Amino acid sequence: MDPTQLLRGVLDLAVLAVLDRADGYGYEVLRGLRAAGLEEVGDASVYGTLRRLYNAGLLTSYVVPSEEGPHRKYYSLNAHGRDRLTESTKAWRAFAGTMEGLVGG
Amino acid sequence: MTADVHGAAQQEYLAGLRAALADLPAGEVTEILDDVGAHLAELDPDDDLVARLGPPQAYAAELRTAAGYPAAPTAAIATAPAGTGGATFALAVLVVTPVLVVLAGLAAFQPEVALLLIVLAVLLVLVALPVVVSAGPRVARVAALPAVRRFRESQPPPGSAAGRASAFLASLQPAWWLLRAVVAAALVVGALLGGGIVPTVLLALVLAPVSVWLGFRSRTDRRLLWPVVPLNAFAAVVAVAGILWVGPSSSVDQSGYSSPYLPGLWQDGERPIEDIRPVDAAGQPLSGVYLFDQDGRPIDVSGGAECAVGEGYSVRERPVQPYPRGTPRYDADTGTCVLVPAGPLVVAVPTAGPTTAPTTAVPLTTAPAAPTVQAPPTG
């Protein structure tokens, strides 16, 4: 099965999980996802997801000036985001367990 | 705000992205461009953004899907295929023109065909140039074509043996830049002055920095590929032709110095003597005359050559024949050698004076010895 198809459904959870570990700007989130093994995730999908989570009120953002490059807009989880992460994690575990029982046996 | 830290290619990419998202609220577009701009700033400035990220339109479409934005309005989509047509044509021109130039090189023995092919290549480039120039320095629309992306993706990975080989070949590029400057100099000097080593070297010294600059420039401004690639093919064809033709002929010249062998009989090494027309003292042509050298060996002016065609001689044994023999000529229609008989001849025989008497007297003293040892050949 094409991993990108699977990824599309769980990208919200993945981005929230990365930001739960530490605040990050877009490229950092992208690298965090890749470092965790989600090689197939598209750059534009991550930036789009960040914007959607932000617009949904799950993230806050703040700007950190940079001396050598453009300023960086960091994203962090707010209370709503953490609640969403908890719910999504619970749903994912249940789903993953179900799938594991289905295909693992 | 981010534009000042980005290279031209990155600004072009961001501009393409901004255009593709133009229907979204301005604030939202700015936020997105901040995110993506920070990303682009961390990439290698020499990176091909379109190859790495996809064309801005595709990037914007993926971002819209992930962000839950509405799809791009149809007007924006409708312009894309129009651009693809032009980009496809430009790509075809880039592939076809070097092939035309190489074919022209192969057809060089038929100058009309070669010239026609070169003119066709130039016309194609001229027609494609407006499309290419308007496409921006990275010609993003051409780079975004599926064929180009597949080609880039099919490149061997850097670590592999094939990758190292292609990296090594790429490292030879500056040497090619110098070589093509030499070729261009040789062509210009050959056309204007008819050749010469010194002016070629001097002009090559002037052209080399231009060629190197063009090489580096075409890495960042891909539009230059359209004129440069066909010219490179032309220079390569000229260089190969130069090696194939100048190489052997110069070695012939060198062997000519060490052993000045020229078949046949030559006047002062410059003028070939192809036939001998004996006349008597009154200027009347003689026929059936045999000529022998001082040792009684028959003199043959043909050099053993039946016919000289280009550089090849068809050598064969010929029986000794009386003079005048006629001159062998190559007949282009039949591809054979024909013997042109000696035509009418009018010569001015010098009148015998007191000064000529001693010179004629000398052969007379030796004359009786020669005929006694040499019988006229019958062949």
Automatic annotation (TrEMBL), chain A:
InterPro entries from the xrefs? Metal_resp_DNA-bind_regulator (IPR052509), Tscrpt_reg_PadR_N (IPR005149), WH-like_DNA-bd_sf (IPR036388), WH_DNA-bd_sf (IPR036390)
Instruction: Give the transmembrane region(s).
Output: none
Please give the superkingdom of this protein's source: Bacteria
Residues annotated as domain Transcription regulator PadR N-terminal:
15-87
| One Pfam family linked to the record | PadR
Q: What is this protein called?
A: PadR family transcriptional regulator
Source organism per UniProt: Pseudonocardia petroleophila
TrEMBL record, chain B:
Q: Which domain of life is it from?
A: Bacteria
| Species annotation | Pseudonocardia petroleophila
The protein, known as: Proline-rich protein
Sequence segments annotated as region (Disordered)? 359-379
Q: Is S-adenosyl-L-methionine one of the keywords UniProt gives this record?
A: no
Q: Which UniProt keywords apply?
A: Membrane, Transmembrane, Transmembrane helix
Q: Which residues cross the membrane?
A: 89-109, 115-140, 185-212, 224-246
This protein's record includes keyword Transmembrane helix: yes
